[in-house]
Amino acid sequence: MPRDPRQIQLEIDSARESLAATLDQIAYRTSPTRLKAQGKNAVQRFLKTPAGQATVGAVGLLVTFVVVQKVRHRGR
Q: Is the model's pTM score more than 0.90?
């Protein structure tokens, strides 16, 4: 039994619209600008937590230690 060409065209149009919507979603989700902003916000939120502040303090202490060691080593 042959299918109605109008029905086939409607199915094609529906599939095309669905594909276009999917591609738009992929483009939005992988947008470098959006991902950069999302990452920046996540880091800023983390740095406001006690764990984030402890991490910054530990890194600062480590950098200070390394600099002092380098200065001491040059003096010898």
A: no
